Every structure is written in C-alpha cells, then in structure tokens.
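Hi L.,

You mentioned the student needs an example of a multi-chain input paired with its predicted structure. This one should do, with 756 residues in total across all chains.
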Amino acid sequence: MTEVDGHRPLVLANARIVDPSRDIDTAGSVLVADGRIIAAGPEATSARLHGAEIYDCKGAVVAPGLVDMRVFVGEPGFEHRETFASASQAAAAGGVTTIVTMPDTDPVIDDIALVDYLLARASETSLVHVRPMAALTKELKGEALTEIGLLKAAGAVAFTDGHNAIRSPRMLRGALTYARDFDALVVNNTQDPDLVGDGVMNSGETSTRLGLKGIVKEAEIIMVERDVRLARLTRSRYHAAQISVPESLEAIRRAKDEGFAVTCGTTINHLTLNELDIGPYRTFFKMSPPLRTEDDRRAMVAALAEGLIDVVVSAHDPQDVETKRHPFAEAADGAIGLETLLAAAMRLVHAGDIALLPMLAAMSSRPAKLLGLDAGTLKPGSPADIVVFDPDMPWVVANDALKSRSKNTVFEDARMQGRVLRTLVAGRTVYEYAPPVA
Amino acid sequence: MTDTDATAKIAFPHRHLLGIEGLTMQEILGLLDLAEEAVEVNRQVQKKRRTLSGRTQINLFFEASTRTQSSFEIAGKRLGADVMNMAVASSSVKKGETLIDTAVTLNAMHPDILVVRHSSAGAVELLAQKVGCSVINAGDGAHEHPTQALLDALSIRRAKGRIAGLTVTICGDVLHSRVARSNIHCLNALGAHVRVVGPSTLMPRGIERMGVEVHKSMKDALDGADIVMMLRLQRERMKGSLVPSVREYFHFFGLDEEKLAYAKPDALVMHPGPMNRGVEIDSAVADGPRSLIRDQVEMGVAIRMAVLEALASNLPNH
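Structure written out for the whole complex:
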C-alpha cells in the first residue's frame, strides 16, 4: 500500500448496515477516519467529520469486509497461476478484505522464514490483508510437526496441511495435543485418501453414467468422526475445513453440544452447485471434496442456516490450462472463487434459504473470531475493512473480466444478483464498481 | 452402400459418434440397416467402394487395441478412404504432449474423420470439441464404446430376427466396462430387457437407475435369457479388494455349459473380445454352436463402415 491511509474521512450514508458481529441490521451511516470505523448505526452523524467524502449508498448494504478462510494463491512457486497482487484484486472486487492463505506452495510454508517472506511480499503487493495458515507438518508430509509456537508468533493464524489430509491418527493426536499449549487452531481437510482412492467425483448414478470413478461420502464422514474423537480426547481447537455431506455434521453437532471447541466450514461451491453441474466432463467442476447430490446440497444449506456450519469459504484454487485442459480424471481439482463468493452467497439469500445476517456472519465475523483476527466487524474502533454492495444488482460473470490470473471459475456466464460497489481495507478504497459505459 | 445417392437416405444428423446415450431408436436402426448392406459388400470379392474416396481417416489410439483398430482400418479402406494409424501411446504422450496438443496438431492436417480410443472417460468428447472434423469414439475409459454396442445389436438382430422383447443378460465386470454401458443404452433404446450380473464389487453404484435388473447369481440372471453377453475381466482385477481369485470368479460367474443351461435352450453367447478363456468363459462355450463371437467380429467391420458412411454424409463437400 503506497498511499497514505486515512487521508480523508469518509461517510457511507443512506446505508443498510449489516454487522453480524453485533447482530445489527439497520438503516444508518458508517463513519470512517484514520483507517478506522468511528461510528456505525442510525445515530451516526457526519457532523464531526469535516471535509469528509460523503458516499451515498442509496440503500445498499454496508457490511464488514469478508474474511475468506481458504485461499490458495500460488505465490511462491506457482506465480503463473496467481500472485498476491492478482488474488488481492480479485478479493477486493469480491468484497473480501482478508484472505487466509493455504501453505501448499513451493516451498511449503512450514518455516518462520517463509512466513516472514510471505507477509513481507503480501504487504508490498496485496490490496487486502493476507493472513497465512502454516503447515501443520513439515513439507505437508504428515510425518513431523512444524514449529507451531514459533510459526504462530511469526503470524500464522492456524495450522493445516492444506489439500492433504492428516492421514495418521497418531500424528493428528500429537498435533492437536501440542497445538493446545499455544491455543493454536488445527484445520484438517477431511478426505480419507485411502478411501478416495482414484475416485474423481461423487459416487452414484451420475458417476456410473459418466464412467468415472466415484468417491463415497464415507471417505469424508469416517475422517470427520475420527478427527472429532481426537479433538475430544485432546480437548484442542479443531476445525474441519470443508464438509460436503450432512452426515459429516452429526459428530460435529454432538461435540458442539457437549462444549468442545470443534467447528467446521464448507465451500460456496458445495452450497450452490451439485454433481450434475459437471455435465459433459467439465473439469472446472472437478474439486475435492467432490460436488455432491442436490439432496446433500440442500441439507448443507439448511445446516448453514441453522448455524451448525460455522464458516463458508471460496476455496479459491487457481488452476490454468496446463492442469485443467485434460480428460476429467486427469485434470487438477479446484476452482477460483474470491470474486464470486459474495454474489454466489446472495443466491442462497435471494432463494430464501438463509437470511443475510447469518450468511454474512459465516463469511466475516465467525472466521475472524475463529482465527483471532481484528476483522469481521463494524464496531467503532475496528479497522475500516468494509464492503458496500447492492444486494439486488444483476450482473453476468464474464471470464475475461475476472481479476484472477487463472480463469477456472465454476460461474462462467452465470447470472448473479448482488454486486460489490466499493471495498475498503483499513479505510482505503481498494475497489470501486464502475458501471459499464453504454 | 452405393457410391452415389447414398447420402440422401441416411438420417443421422450428428457430426460425431461419441456415445449411444442420446441416440434415438430410429437413428440406431438406420445405422443397423446401413450395416446390413455393408455385410453383403464384405462377402463379395470386389469389396472396395468409393464412398469415402478422397477422405482422410486417422485412427488415433491412445490405448493399444489390435482388434478395434484393424476393424476401423479395414472399414475405412473398403470405403475408399485414406487411412492412417497413429499409436499415440508410444509417441507424443511420452514426450508430455497433452491430448489437446495432439488434437490441434492432427487437426492442422485436415483429416475428415478421427477414430479415437482413450483410457479416460470423456477424453474423446474433449478432443471432439477441439477439432473441425467428425470424431468416432472407439472407447473412452469406462464410459462408452458405441460401435461395439451397435455391432452387438446387429449380431443379435441377424441371429434372432429382432431385438425388442428379448432378454439380454450382461455378465461380469460391469464396473470397468464401457461395452456394458453402451450396450445398456443401445438395448434399452431398442426395447430389450437388460439384466446385469456379477460380484457386487464389480457393479457400479446406481446402475439400476440406467434401466437394468441387477442380479447376484448367474442362475437367476440367466433364467429365461435369450442372449448371454460376457464381459472381459482383466487379470489385474484378480487381486486387492475386488475379486479374490480366478478360481472363485470362474466358479460363480464364468460361463460354462452348466450355467448356460439356465438360459433359454436357444440362447446365444456373445463376447466383445479378446476373451480370457477359463476366466469369464469356458472354451467349449466360446467355440460352441451357440456362440455368436465370430459373427460379432464380422459385424464389427460392417457397423464401422455404416458409421463412417453416415458421418461422411454430413461432412462438407467443398
């Protein structure tokens, strides 16, 4: 960030203020100065902010900037797919003000020097906040713990092996026990690689018709149940990164009911798409966990509305033609999603499946709280990380217009309702919607 | 199979043949009728026609196959096409060239028809999106092998006089079989009753939703069957978590005279080849009077000629 922050106060007037951190959904104004929120609410007045820019929201929503808890960037090692610069532009355009990066880079983020490098690089080139998750085990191999204490002190917000699942129950038990001493959050990708085998999509009629090898949902359920058992045993903070089927939630529900620090997330893809979207072998829809059935999707949406699913992520994972333009079984997993996260989430709101406040909570206040970030809130005194969006404005996702360096979106040509108008990071405008010239 | 005017009567409005799923009964029957004529041509001394004269056909096999490739080669040559075989498995793929690269390279050579086999489901469809010519799927992973299903249908119709109303039992490794999937689509479209049988480890989930009866024992599956269609079981499946041994597999699912007796007295036996004698089928049955297996090979050439002709009729002439 080269400009001086907070050079001119800002008033976001005529807003619908939605602040899930305080359970507020009200008309009013938000006042920003010196990179922080001065006031937010119906009583907020611009009288004391002389020389402020007045931005008329015209009834648009003003909410905490989103905190996306699962983002693969590609820097270092895969800069041709995505850099902090390009990822942060996509994030800013999508209303995401904090991206939490995964350690699956080359080299793997498993050493404090690499956390230092990453944070320095991000502060030079990123428009939005970058908070890294570090590797839980060295080189993501599942064999030896990383220096959790030192890495946390260096700025790692949680510990995960990213795409890899912690396979060995002995290793996970050790990791959870050790992490507890530092109050560190352990995040696991709960897909049992042995049961997944060489499966490439959800197992069932559709995989049979397509002649593709299936992945049974038990590959996830069994691992979630195992992980939750170990989290209970060790009384540690545990987060299942991306759940795709409702049966996985049963163990999580029991643990939550009994007061254990167990949480879970899912991806926006699993809430808005199903296995039939793969259609004629479209590899952009290949992901892990795989897209499931429509029944699964609906049950997951209901669990989100109920509050059982804590966090919704984009699972932004840039892949290029080298890794995606292959026969389905040979193509890489993953889809980008930073720029479309909020708009896709608005589909659920417009469909009446969930109210706006809890939807935004799952993408801002809850992940911020889980990771201990000073973000995801409009509380006075907080950093002015803010998204202004029109919940109703229609737009069509155009691949060429996406900011990400990779174009593997599952929402190509999709019609969206809900558009980001302006994004602020620490009071500085990092994105402003420009209406197309007629 | 005349040299001219043939195009007028062919009602096959598709640029490619990527699978049986989605074809109508009329389209399938049209191809079978066209193939009947090719059968007659193939039995004459003068087999050469000029239907594909000037056309270039490239057989692009990413997965080795002597039988299917030579069948397509003979079919193309009898129709007068210039046929080239490319065994990609041994050349460019090893150099790291992707499927798309190969497709783009070949496309620049202006072929009229590509015949493609690939070990990955959907690969032929992906390739078809990147080329300007007609594409025939000669087998993609466990997805489809449409010309096999068509030649099976032709063999059945010639032997039984009809397909509608017949009971056809498909036996063995349905899980890994593109032949089974294409046959299920084809036989259902033509009005047959289709059953499948095999160990549960070799039955794909949800197969019953494709319009088949699923059986666990050969006795039940073959009871009253008109056609017994065996599938090849690859020997590498005989370990790990699918099938414990050849002995056990043959005992329960191998087709011998004893099990064939459960079917109708005039039931016929089919196999897409190449056979694993003593694994899924006993030699006495394979070579016996009720075997259609050699007819299937003959019908293979005829069906491929019909498919080539039908697709060529849609190719631009300028």
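You could point out the following to them. Chain A is about 30% helix and 25% strand. The longest strand of chain A covers residues 386-396.

Best wishes,
N.
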